Each structure stands twice: as C-alpha cells, then as structure tokens.
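note to self: dont lose this again. the chain is below, predicted strucutre after it. 418 aa total, dont forget to put it in the shared folder this time
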Amino acid sequence: MDKTKDAIEILKTYNQDHIIRLLDNLEGEKKQELIDQIMRIDFNQIHELYENTKKEIEIKENKIEAIKYVDKSKLTKEEKENLDKLGEDVIKKGEYAVVTMAGGQGTRLGHTGPKGTFKLDVYGKGKYLFEILTENLKEANKKYGVNIFWYIMTSKENNEETVNFLEKHKYFGYPKEKVKIFTQSELPLVDTNGKLLIDKNYKIKEASDGNGGTYSSLRASGCLAEMKENGIKWVFIGSVDNALLKMVDVTLLGLAIDKNVQIASKSVVKANPHEKVGVFCKMNGHPKVIEYTELPEKMAEEVDENGELKFGESHIMCNLYTIDAIERISKEPLIYHSAFKKNSYIDEDGKEVIPTKPNSYKFESFIFDAFELFDDIAILRGKREDDFAPVKNKEGVDSPRTAKELYEKYWNRNKKAD
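---
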C-alpha cells in the first residue's frame, strides 16, 4: 500500500518541506524506507520537544530533603546475614534477571566500537568490559546454583557489532540461551529551526533517547513479557562501563525486600561536596536524583550531626526494581531533557555538512527520573573502592588508568581475604 500521500501530509503539517523535496528525488527501496520511517515517527512529540527548547526553565519551589540510606560497612554480622538470606532465596529460585545498558560507543575513550568491547589493561593481558561483567555473573551463577537471565541493551548504531563481538568470543563462556539482546529506542535530531536532520543514507537522523529509554525498550522488545513468563520478580539494571559493578548484590536485594519497596539503588559517598555527580535526595516527598548543577552550593556543603554530607549519596547506575515497577515505569512518559550537540547531516544539495559548533538538539530521558513515581527507595551505601570503577574518559578522572587501578586493588584484596 502506497503511503506517499500520507507521509507528505504529515511533513507539510510539521513544516518539514526539505524532506518532501528529498522524497521527490528518491525512488525504489530508498524512498520506501524513508516513507516507513516517517510513518513510524511521532512528529507531534518531536514538535513539542523542540518547542520546549525555547522555553525558559522554570525553577519551581521544591522541598528538598536528605534521604535515608543504610551503610553496608556498618551492618552487624547478623543484620547482613539476614539481608543476604532474603536476597539469596530470590536468586536461588530463579526470580532475578540483570540488564546491561550497552548502547554507547567508546568515542570518548578513543576506542572505535561499542563501549563493552573496550579492553581494560588489567593484569598484563587485559580484559574486555563485557568479559568483566560476564565473570561477575558466572561467579554468582556458581555460588547460587542458577543461570541468571542476562539482557543486553544495544543501540541501532552498535547492535550488529556487539552481537558479532559476543558471538566471536562465545559469550565468554556464558550460556547463550540465557542472553537476550535488544535495542534501545531512538528519537530524531532537530536543528535550531525545528527541521529534522537527514543522514548519509537519506533517512531522518536519529539517536538513542537516553538511558531512561531502557524501561520502554524492555517493553517494546518483548523482553519484559519474556521476563514475566520466566517468573522473574526482580530486575537489576546497570551500565557496561563500571569495572567493579556487582550485578548480583544479595545485600541490596535483601534490603529492598526487608524495606518492602519496589526500587533500590546502591550509592557511594561523594568524594567531596563539589564532585560532579548526581546525588539522591527526597524532593516533594519522593525519591529523586538531583544533578550537581541543580544542587545549591550551600546544600552541597551541608553536613549532619555525624559530620557527613547531608546530600552525599552519589547515584552510580546500580539500580534494582521489582518487575511490577518496571512495568509501571515502561507505561509512563518520562520527561525529556534536550542536549545541544554537534551533528553532521546531508544538506539539500546532497552534500555532507560537518559542523564546527553545536547545531542540533538531541532529546533524552534519564533512568533516575523514574524514581519520582515511587514513595520510597532503599539505598545501600557501598564503597567506591569496592563498587565503582567507571571507564568514561580517555585520561584523568574515571579513565581506563583509574579503573585498572581500582579493579586490580579490589581483586588483590579479595584474593588475600579468601
């Protein structure tokens, strides 16, 4: 069925005449692909997101309070054992699954390819980030006598390369039937006049819609339905770039069960009051992660009666949910944030334009924006040297060098402890 007329009507309504002209010049498969894409895109949503970029951000009066947490290192032996038992029971019953967000490219690291394929120079021979995560899961499987379902979220940009990489390395010995790969949803990029960008394949240029898109992507891909069919009750979501990520932390799981909450997260204390990280708080009575840019300096420096930072619990992308919580969030539209970025595009003469300064808006939602849908969250404070070795920058803070150091020190300590 020819949908050319319908596509043109949509483009006219939303002032995308440059795409109508592009359609006139295309034929065959290329033309059909573009029409299919036009019919799939929610133009009204994109129009509203673009209009929002012109609005002044309203600073509403918000009641911000410190949030309660449990410090893992201060639990008594008995308290920890009780929480661990609650968590272990769920895992042994096969009711636990993990999701790895792996849609990013290693560009900032100077690495060409998906971030998970980056090799961290540990112990001389090095280990890929995917390999490190696989070892973490295999260890849990062995300990609890199960094979945990592992869901890996890629992007359209890196999906094929990720699949080929994991196939080539035979999933680093992980049972393939327990691994499910799905792709993250995307949104079009628009320029400063609200015009959609065109890419080299003569399609509308799209980019991943932020880590907040994980929930709806789990739903759209059928993974959420599959989890329910497999009797999954709890789901952990973490990112591919933390070399010390514990995807199976029975204490965190036990704490969530003990507190009878639907969401839980692990934190580490801020290195200093002005570290550039999002921190947990309660805003208007709901859990929230507040960005360092939004936390007033005076509050960032506030301390409690023990001399600890009141707003010191950093969000380290180490989040746990009941399956019902994920289902609920996946149906809720999260707020989108716009980022003004440089993006190449094809102009009306068919030439590629590579901008030297930001020229377009990318829209993304954040995973922690979903926390506000709930009344409470369980937060377990871990330790940076045990839980957080991010690989984000080529050099300096959170770089391969710092991650290597943290990773090797952690395993050397734990070998001695064994």
